[in-house]
């Protein structure tokens, strides 16, 4: 240990001398560890918020009767209610329904009115609790969205299982179901003060009898409705322990009787699987950021060791062992890693705390904790990760430092050369990984196109990751060549550009490492952007195929077997909507056939002229005429009816035989003309209106106008169409893309710090050279320009290659992931690519500002100095 | 024939003969620090350098010879006095004008060569012209390459050249823009004596055959002997002037400066012969 004292002193002395350079490298690690710390803290916030919500849903219940097998029956509930000391007991039970009013619909969770207010997490803010079966109370925002007030009627549709079993197409027997729509009167508005249902969009309230009816209707006949928990409120005088025992005895099916707090904790523990996925997801991005930070650190240490080569050689001359020099660099890394990680933890904690402090100003609909919860992992994990990454990054430079020959101190040249070239092993490894990964990527895409979606996706992700690692490991071999090529192009622009281009090639390894750090982030951003753009187009195609028209208005109320006829008032209202290029009255129903393989066909009946006026691809319906049933290809394929020429249809009015014409379309319904239809259904009236949005009109606005027009009629109708789905799909894609790009931005920021760092170090190294250039006539502006171009070149090369790789991975990924919905058009997101490159170039420029300021301070006289 | 002429340091050292003046200094003064700590690096120097001649500025370490060169070349600003390049007064020019002046009218040869390692010899030579946004005069470039014996080395990078070859590339770089004057700062300081002699011969040939003006700062009497004239400087003042110096006369001049006490040097002149 005696030898470590001088080594430590030396390390600290060298760190002081290089403080500025180390600090900027430390920023990279600090950002990475701040990311980790913030993620862990956010995880804690989510857990405590989840607990808050779960606990809120239990209201002020004292005890919970639990059954892990979810088999508690109505009889068990009655037994619990009969226990001495129990004031009230309710089953914890929910149902769901689609609520509809004036063309707007909301999918809503429903809970029952509690038998005691202590068991009710919601508070009535206006009106009355629902009592009758056709009454409902809603959260105010849901009422707003539907445009209803207390006393108004909303339509609720739900799936009801049939009383009698059905024989399905494939010959199996089971219970089918049908949609049932009912009118419900709004009796009151309910607040959710403790955000019990904030995570699921609020809850509607119905009477216990109504809820029980709905749950039972959703079960096959003969199945008893059961729950997993009964919440109990006690009489004020009751002894909880005694009641606990009595309940366990009264409800033998119960696996546990516990306090509501313990029940909440149990639920949170079961839900934490979701939190873990969230943490793993975000941590993956933190890992990317840390890898990039590691590259920046490694680069900084390489340069520091190179700049200290003479000092190191001198130390070797006077007797320092290679081990001492090696340990000295590692000690330096450990000190840097510790300080930077601690800074990062403080920053991460401050960010999350700041977020919690400003969160209440946004209406998030759920109470968040006031302060962060600094658990041990929040502190230890980022610290450990930060130190390990810094040490790992410093290993190679430490080895280089140890390898400096004592003789180097005696050489007159500038900084002695460190390692020359990169190892052959590295080249082989990089090539194998890149090529192997790309091959695996190709196999994955091919598998997915063959229908092996899951294996294909795994192969694509695995191949993509492997080839990216190969690319990163091998970047030192090929990236300088790319830089040289681009540099030659840039170099024609003038002397500053030529100097800059030449400078980037002086330390190929350093330039490569700096560009690679940026390449990683840009590749991932590019992949996500390309994937999103491709998915967007694929969704558009899919929606166009799914919805032959922009707007479909259908009656929400079913009338026995078929949906009710469209009220004339609705037809009138829609005909008054501006922005529609046409409307068509359409009848949609299941028609029976004489073919046993295909007992009934969903059929859309419309006149060819009306249809062509509203659909998006009129040419598809060219073959629709009297005597023909037009069947979309996919539908025909599904029923294995390809090659069938004609089909006999039957109905109340008789039979008719139609020719079959298949068309290239994904719609799930066949088409026929009204003349043929009347032969089998003489009395049926149109139950849908199809409308096309006129060219040049905003689809979403027109859609809203249709909703408004319909809502004036008071008829229960649903308005659907590609517009709504497209908007929600696009929103989903945009939100996911935004989050992912936001998380990746951290890695990009770290990489840009790396660019600035590399430039600063280069400026210090080239001090004499800058002075000479100034002496022989390079202006300050030209010197600044030289560094700016160098920064933009380093950043630009990383960004360009990243975008190219991103396109490749984005295409491969979306071709695989979207293989299920058919042919995927590969999209180049030009605007986003331009933005990425623009940001990278601008950042390269900005990164050069501080180093350039230092460079122009160099006095030309410095070139004349002897040493 | 002893042509040594010692002149009083207080008076201008006019150039012999009627040649046009390439560079002039009038009462040129440079001080560092303030108050008690003031150091007069250059103390009211008056000196002229003729066009088309090879002049050496000689003096011991700390004599102010480098400071004089920095001021004359527009690399540093004077505390007082004037410096002229031809008819242009360079004292008082701003950084931008000085940069242009250095680029277009001044050449430099450094002790450390200061070639750009990533450029070839040819690219290094043409650099000043390119910085000015022009292209090198092909005939002049060929002449320089011939004169300096660099024909076979143009595609080499500095790392592949010997010290003497690097310095010859640096001389070609200094001359490529046909500057009014070339300043050479200890150009042989980093070379062995054979390469040094070679470089000095090339500098002299540049003056004799190509008609250039070169001002060389050196402390080496044998280097000064290649010049047409040696200006001696000590303690920030001109301390002597030798025409057609020989190694011996230059050495004698330097020895004289060394053996004299500073205050004596300023009063006495012509002594030491």
How would you explain this protein's 3D organization?
Chain A: It comes from Promicromonospora umidemergens. Chain A is of the alpha+beta class. The model of chain A is unreliable at 412-420 (pLDDT under 50). In chain A, strands 14, 17, 18, 19, 20, 21, 22, 23 and 24 form a nine-stranded mixed sheet that branches. Chain A is built from 24 helices and 24 strands. In chain A, helix 9 runs antiparallel to helix 10, helix 11 crosses helix 22 and helix 22 (780-817) packs antiparallel against helix 23. In chain B, the strands form two sheets. A seven-stranded mixed sheet of chain B has the order 1-11-10-4-9-8-7, with helices on both faces. With 273 residues, chain B is an alpha/beta fold. Chain B has one domain: Rossmann fold, CATH 3.40.50. The interface between A and B is medium-sized, with 27 and 34 residues.
Report the count of strand segments of chain A. Answer: 24
Task: Sketch the major β-sheet of chain A.
Answer: 9 strands, mixed
Report strand % of chain B: 15-25%
User: Which range best describes the helical content of chain A: under 10%, 10-25%, 25-40%, 40-55%, 55-70% or over 70%?
Assistant: 55-70%
Query: What is the count of distinct domains of chain A?
Result: 4
Low-pLDDT segments of chain A: 412-420
**Helix run count of chain B:** 9
Rg of chain A, alpha carbons = 35 Å
Helices and strands of chain A: which structural class? alpha+beta
- Could you tell me the mean pLDDT of chain A? 84
In CATH, what is the homologous superfamily of chain B? P-loop containing nucleotide triphosphate hydrolases
